[in-house]
Structure formats: structure tokens, C-alpha cells
Amino acid sequence: MPRMTFSTDNVRQSDTKFPAVKLAQNEYWRVVIAEPQPTYEWVHTLRKPKLSPIDGKLQVREVTNKDGSKREVTDMDFVGSPRCLGSIDILEDRGIDNDHCPACQAALDYPDFFTRPERRFAVHVLKYSTKSGTSQVAPGPLNLETKVWRMSEARYAKVAQVIEEFGGENPDPTKIDLVLGPCTNAMYQNYEIAGSPQCYVARDEASWARAVETFEGNNAGDLTPYCGRKSDAGQINADIKEIVGRWKSAQAGGAPVEQPDFSNTLAQSGAGLLEGATAKRSEPEPAPTVDLASGLDDTVGGAANDDPPFEEKAEAPAPSAGSSSGKTAVSFADLMGSLPQRS
Ligand SMILES: [Zn+2]
Question: What is the DSSP letter of 42?
């Protein structure tokens, strides 16, 4: 068994910590895309319902529709955003690959609990320093910062539309300034995207050199982890069990949730939990995926505030499917009794 000293040198750094495009309330950003092609992956968004600590029933919260009316929705906790295990060809063709991916199978078995995979995009952009509260570039040499912009399908479509509007037949996205804002909801990252007739990095050679230098000197490298978490079937199955178990518990009329509450592991851990705890999530979760949340606003029902923000839980160890020999999954086995078995 490996051992290591207590040293901050040994602390694992998340590989998705690069500064993201994230606007504050009412803020404007001016950016230019720094690479012609975004990275994308098919990704599952896994969520589980919150249960009331009092009666174990589904916890609901009130949301405001765009027209100002109110309604109640089931309050959800974010579980994870694993990359789909399906084959890319099948996914491009059918949008789902249940032969290779347990989360796709879950979306077919439990369409109320799981959604099909969606494409998630990530691209580097250069953010201009602008005059406070505006998208106007400050005079003098450009001041640029590299950021990672994560996009839902809907946001990707919007950006593609703007690029075509401003770039003509064969648009070069790296030569079109985009104005983001104003941000009308910082939590959900709702903001307009517009093209600008002027592109400051392309205005002269010095500015272009500055852009190249900024990007090459500081970028996140491979953006695949920003699209979704790397997972294997065991990890995804463990997530599925957790989610189905939560729903079944709620449906059973609020029986106590026997599965451990992984969101508070240290306080509640028993020996069994600790033993099973290390197998999962060797790869850090993506940082809070604000863009995913805003994407859902666009794609799920079209209402603005339908969905909770994707707040990643603190690293939540969970038993790995198949290797924890039921110690922490004792209650899972019962809960999962009626899960359809795959041949
Ligand atoms: Zn899948």
C-alpha cells in the first residue's frame, strides 16, 4: 500500500481549475475565441432528488417562471457529469449508446430519473480588459487573459450563429470579438452573446502578437476534462445506484435513506464506508459547471430558473460497484432489486 508524507506538494490539483468564463451579475465581458475548434464530449448530467430531513419525502422548492408566475419543482443535488462511455459513431448517429454505456441504459430504463447524454463543449478564449461596466476596450496596448469557456449545446449553437453572422462564408472565429452580457443571472450564467464589428486582436500586428503570446504562455492544454468527468462503468454504475436508490426511497413514502450520506462522509463514516471509499473518483470532478446549468435553462423546458445550479459536492467517496463487496452497499442491493438486468 503506498504511503506519502503530509506535504502540500502531495495535494492533488484538479485538472479543471483553469479560470473559466464566469460573469458577475450585470457584468459585460469582451472576448475573442483563441482556437478555431472547440473540444467536445458526450456527457451525462447525473442528479438525485433532495429528500426532506424531516419526513424523507421529496423536497420541493418554488421557482419563478419567466412570466413571473411561481411553481414548485423537485429540488435536486448534482451527482456528477461523467463522459458517456458510448462509441462516438453511435452517439453521433443515434444520440445514445446503451450497449456501451450504463448511463445511457439508465436513461432508457428510467427516463424520469436520467437524461440522455448531451454534447458539452469547451474552448479557450482571450478576455480583454475593458472599461468598468462596459465592453469597451481600454486604450493602449491590449491586456488579455486566457479563460476556458464551457458551453452547452444551446450556447454552442448561439456562438456558431454569431460567428457566421459576422464572419461570412468561411468565418475565422479567432478574428471576431464577442460581447457577453449583461449577465442577468450570475448563478445560471444567463447572458446575451453578440458579435462586434471590430476585432481588437486583429487590428494590428502588435495586438495579434500579444494575443498569441498570451494564449501560448497560459492555457489549460487539453480541454476534455472541462467537458465532463472521466469515468469507468463501475463509477457510473455506483452513481446510478445512488440515484435510483434515492428515488425509490422517496417513492416508498419516505422511508429512511439507508445509504450513507456521502455528502458528509467524515461525520458519518463507519469502517465499511472508509474501506469502500477510495476506489472512486481518482480524477477530480470538474469545477462548478456554471455553463452547464445555463445550458439546461435553454434546453429543459425553456424556462429560466428550472434547474438548480450545478454545485459540485465536496469530493464524495462512494463505494465502487463490484468491489466493495456489499459492505457499504447493503442497502443498495435491496433498493436495486427491481432494476432491470442487462443481458
Ligand atoms: Zn452514455
Answer: E
What does the angle CA 227 – CA 228 – CA 232 come to, to the nearest 5 degrees? 145
> Other CB atoms closer than 10 Å to residue 209's CB: what's the count?
12
Distance 21 CA to ligand 1 centre (A): 27
User: Using CA atoms, how far apart are residues 96 and 67, in angstroms rounded to an integer?
Assistant: 34
Task: Determine the distance separating the centroid of ligand 1 and the alpha carbon of 105, expressed in angstroms.
Answer: 7
Half-sphere exposure of 93 (CA within 13 A, CB side): 7
pLDDT digits (tens, 9 = 90+) for 224-239: 999 999 999 999 999 9
Grid coordinates given for 163: 460567428
pLDDT in tens, 275-301: 233 333 333 333 333 333 333 333 332
Ligand 1 center to residue 171 CA distance, Å?
32
CA dist 4 to 7, 64, 301, 316, Å?
8, 50, 49, 21
Residue 31 near residue 125 (C-beta atoms within 8 A): yes
Task: Compute the residue count for the chain.
Answer: 343
Using CA atoms, how far apart are residues 128 and 125, in angstroms rounded to an integer? 10
Q: How far is the CA of 96 from the centre of ligand 1 (A)?
A: 6
Spacing, Cα 181 to ligand 1 middle (Å): 33
Q: Which amino acid is at 255?
A: A
CB 23 within 8 A of CB 29: yes
With residue 63 as reference, give the H or E element that holds it: strand 60-64
Can you give the residue ranges of every domain in the chain?
Answer: 23-316
Q: Name the packing angle between helices 233-251 and 102-109 (round to 10°).
A: 20
pTM: 0.71
Q: Which of 130, 122, 120 is nearest to 179 (CA)?
A: 130
Q: Which of 207-221, 268-282, 306-320 has the highest mean pLDDT?
A: 207-221
